[in-house]
């Protein structure tokens, strides 16, 4: 796979697939971090005298032109951050996009409107995607994928453009994801600890099964721990649980023992009668969860146990909070885990997933982590050991 700094891009016309799926309220962007994250790659191209065509998606318009999901505000904000005008090619991608791309001069930037206005972008099969990837590829000399957030999706702009592009490469964002998630974890320093939380076991089964035998310790928190407790015969009260995955949880616990990975579950919890509660009603052990309540955070003894494991770690991968961190009373576990990882010296610490990222930024500790992944689903699939469609497409482009 080629990276942008390995390609001659001087004076070239470049098509960038970026992840600018930012939150917008009443036409105003409320968080521009995804735009800012892509700026180094875009600026690098401009400094080399290239012209830039940006393409991205926003929300789920499902193949229809939805004015509220236009990238107009995104084009404006990108222009402000770059210090130059970024013209939007409105509506579906067609003749106007072809003409504006053809007229683009070195140093200029345009942005195609929401890729998902075009139904072919999200077609499930090559036939449904048709020639849309070929059309996009025809706009430029070089294709750059810098959108890890959609690296796991077989969208036309991700997997089809590389088939027709003259030259393909990964931008700096995608390069960092590849280096940290792929290369750095091939031979991790030990102890190697995986921290897995969040609501559902179902979204983490692939990761847990893939990491068994590779990691030294697996810490499990959040509501997904409840399914493991149920598999051990404990009553979890009204807590969120997945009864149909009890056998899968039991299987993971058995495999962990046989493969040499130690699995750590909560031994106590903070609980309440409703997830809307502002205060915990008390602390209970894993064996004494009240039948009329639900657990919403790991308890103090569990925090002590988890922090002790993390303190000796040399490699940590963390995905998923330890509880309902959005409510202050149930954020203690997530915040303690976050601080324990951030405080590690000479350790590789990798974070992924929107909620986990939110915890890190809530504590303003993002600078203390080795790497914060920009992808949710892509991060999970990478940890499952899958080859992401975006990486596969870029490698095949290089070898064609």
TrEMBL record:
Entry binding sites for substrate: 19-21, 34, 57-60, 116, 153
Gene3D superfamilies: Phosphoglycerate kinase, N-terminal domain
Pathway in which this enzyme or protein is active: Carbohydrate degradation; glycolysis; pyruvate from D-glyceraldehyde 3-phosphate: step 2/5
UniProt binding sites for ATP: 204, 326, 353-356
Domain of life per record: Bacteria
EC assignment: 2.7.2.3
Enzyme class: transferase
Keyword presence, Kinase: yes
GO molecular function, one term: phosphoglycerate kinase activity
Record's keyword terms, sorted: ATP-binding, Cytoplasm, Glycolysis, Kinase, Nucleotide-binding, Transferase
HAMAP family per the UniProt record, alphabetical: Phosphoglyc_kinase
Designated name of the protein: Phosphoglycerate kinase
Gene it is expressed from: pgk
């Amino acid at each position: 796979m080629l990276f942008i700094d390995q390609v001659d891009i001087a004076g070239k016309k470049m098509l960038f697939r970026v992840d600018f799926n930012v939150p917008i309220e009443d036409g105003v962007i409320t968080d521009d971090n995804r735009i800012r994250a892509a700026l180094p790659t875009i600026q690098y191209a401009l400094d080399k005298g290239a012209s830039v065509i940006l393409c991205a998606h926003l929300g789920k318009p499902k193949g229809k032109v939805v004015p509220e999901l236009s990238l107009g505000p995104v084009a404006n904000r990108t222009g402000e951050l770059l210090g130059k005008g970024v013209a939007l090619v409105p509506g579906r991608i067609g003749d106007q996009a072809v003409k504006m791309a053809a007229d683009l001069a070195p140093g200029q930037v345009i942005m195609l409107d929401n890729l998902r206005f075009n139904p072919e972008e999200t077609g499930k099969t090559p036939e449904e995607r048709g020639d849309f990837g070929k059309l996009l590829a025809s706009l430029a000399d070089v294709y750059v994928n810098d959108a890890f957030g959609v690296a796991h999706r077989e969208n036309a702009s991700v997997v089809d453009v590389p088939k027709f592009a003259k030259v393909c490469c990964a931008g700096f964002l995608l390069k960092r994801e590849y280096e940290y998630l792929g290369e750095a974890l091939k031979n991790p320093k030990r102890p190697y600890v995986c921290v897995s939380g969040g609501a559902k076991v179902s979204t983490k089964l692939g990761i847990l099964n893939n990491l068994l035998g590779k990691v030294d310790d697996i810490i499990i928190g959040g509501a997904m721990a409840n399914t493991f407790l149920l598999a051990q015969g404990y009553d979890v009260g009204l807590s969120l649980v997945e009864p149909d995955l009890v056998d899968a949880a039991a299987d993971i616990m058995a495999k962990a023992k046989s493969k040499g990975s130690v699995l750590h579950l909560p031994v106590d919890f903070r609980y309440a009668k409703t997830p809307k509660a502002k205060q915990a009603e008390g602390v209970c052990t894993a064996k004494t969860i009240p039948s009329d309540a639900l657990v919403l955070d790991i308890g103090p003894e569990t925090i002590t146990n988890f922090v002790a494991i993390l303190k000796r770690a040399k490699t940590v991968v963390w995905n998923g909070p330890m509880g309902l961190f959005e409510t202050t009373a149930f954020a203690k576990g997530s915040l303690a885990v976050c601080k324990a990882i951030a405080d590690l010296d000479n350790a590789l610490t990798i974070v992924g997933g929107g909620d986990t990222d939110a915890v890190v930024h809530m504590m303003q500790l993002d600078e203390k982590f080795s790497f914060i992944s920009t992808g949710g689903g892509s991060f999970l699939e990478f940890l499952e050991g899958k080859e992401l469609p975006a990486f596969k497409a870029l490698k095949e482009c290089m070898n064609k």
